Amino acid sequence: MKIKKTCLKLNYINKIIILLSICLGGGVQAQSIIVEGVVPNDSTQQEILNKLYATYGQKNVINRIQIRQVTAPIGWSNAVNKVINDDLKKVKQGKLTVKGSNIQLIGKVLNLHEMDITTKKFQGLIPANYHLNAQLTVNQAEQQIIDAVLKNRIVEFESGSAVLAASGAKILDEMVIALNKVSGKKVRIIGHTDSSGDANKNIVLSQQRAEAVKNYLISKNIAAENLSVDGLGSTQPIADNLTAEGRKKNRRIEFEVL
């Protein structure tokens, strides 16, 4: 399996500088997070590594951090741990830099909604004495071609199963045309459910539905190596799960151009 490398650079220079640069790839293959720089002690290093392992998986993290007699800003380790999270994985082809109390986040996200939500989440995570400079953009050209197919429609399945409904298959036939227009691009298929029922079972069902979509597209001659899947269950609702209409909107398939 080809591994895309994501570099994360940590730097303490003299008294204050920590430079955390996450060069985010965007392929369907596993990302390799390369962490390098200088920190003042073992505990700081381990805190950073533990958070990276939890976020990206230990097998995807390459540790090149050095320990030297340098001084860190107060609360730096805690601030860094807060910004290394699952929301960071939404940012593609980008970089996260933490330099002293200044945090810069650059990269591409799925759509304007994700851009707004991600920026607000990071602003809410950092301490009051830190400054966030978010420069996120939408992965526009190819993503717009894909989004235009859905037109606020939902790829539907038979109730409680991963069997495509006829209406869902019809939308996917249109998606085949769009995917051929962005030929060569990697696309992640993301399954979502509403909050009804068991949360763990919803994760499994959303994964199965994403797999069903992938298999359907492959049957229509879309290259398998360009497609990846993810099942998020009910963890990322876009509407109120307390209403029938909201639950219907939350049961969805998304396509992310990587």
Short structural description:
36% of the residues lie in helices and 25% in strands. The protein is of the alpha/beta class and 258 residues long. Helix 1 (42-56) links the parallel strand 3 (31-39) and strand 4 (61-67).
Explain what you see.
The chain is of the alpha/beta class. It folds into two domains: 4-138, hypothetical protein tt1634, CATH 3.40.1520.20; 141-257, 2-Layer Sandwich (60s Ribosomal Protein L30, Chain: A), CATH 3.30.1330.60. The chain contains seven helices and ten strands. Strands 2-1-3-4 form a four-stranded mixed beta sheet, with helices on one face. Strands 5-6-7 form a three-stranded mixed beta sheet, covered by helices on one side. Helix 4 packs antiparallel against helix 5. It is elongated and about 65 Å long. Residues 12-18 have low confidence and may be disordered.
Structure classification: alpha/beta
Spatial strand sequence of the major β-sheet: 2-1-3-4
Overall tally of structural domains: 2
What's the CATH first level of the largest domain? Answer: Alpha Beta
Q: Can you tell me the CATH architecture of the largest domain?
A: 3-Layer(aba) Sandwich
Instruction: Give a quick account of the main beta sheet: strands, pairing sense, barrel closure.
Output: 4 strands, mixed
Percent range for β-strand residues: 15-25%
List SSEs in N-to-C order. Answer: EEEHEHEEHEHHEHEHE
Uncertain runs with pLDDT below 50, 5 residues or more?
A: 12-18
CATH topology of the largest domain: hypothetical protein tt1634
Rounded Rg: 20 Å
The coarse silhouette is: elongated
Work out the helicity level. 25-40%
Number of helical regions = 7
**N- and C-termini, Cα separation:** 17 Å
The total of beta strands comes to 10
